[in-house]
């Protein structure tokens, strides 16, 4: 992953590109249900989101799925907002620096995990899905 202009940290556009690339690598049965997924990138989760998640430290949340899982949707949900995956840039950058794992791998991990919530998958299923995306 290249740094941003003038050697800065990767920016929002870099994160969005890596997240979209991770989505395109998902197997067909999943990919066909992702056209409406919105990818958002923010530096940190806001205080309201952290409180709702029971998280005290803004550095501890790297991504979040907003929406109703497909397993809980009905035909009456058509007017609801599209599902969204939000990546939190600063915590991901910190994890990238601390772990030495590539930024692409970290973003893929978070995107796959959050997309797993969209499909109502277990953690075990999410790990298997992530393995198929690598």
Automatic annotation (TrEMBL):
InterPro entries linked: Zincin_1, Zincin_1_sf
Pfam entry (one): Zincin_1
Coiled coil (residue ranges): none
Domain of life: Bacteria
Name of this chain's protein: Neutral zinc metallopeptidase
């Amino acid at each position: 992953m290249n740094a941003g202009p003038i050697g800065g940290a990767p920016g929002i556009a870099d994160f969005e590109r890596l997240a979209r690339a991770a989505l395109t690598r998902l197997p067909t049965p999943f990919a066909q249900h992702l056209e409406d997924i919105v990818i958002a990138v923010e530096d940190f989760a806001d205080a309201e989101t952290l409180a709702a998640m029971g998280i005290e430290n803004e550095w501890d949340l790297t991504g979040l799925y907003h929406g109703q899982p497909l397993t809980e949707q009905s035909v009456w949900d058509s007017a609801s907002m599209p599902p969204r995956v939000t990546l939190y840039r600063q915590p991901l950058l910190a994890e990238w620096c601390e772990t030495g794992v590539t930024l692409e791998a970290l973003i893929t991990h978070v995107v796959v995990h959050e997309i797993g919530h969209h499909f109502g998958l277990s953690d075990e299923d999410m790990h298997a899905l992530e393995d198929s995306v690598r």
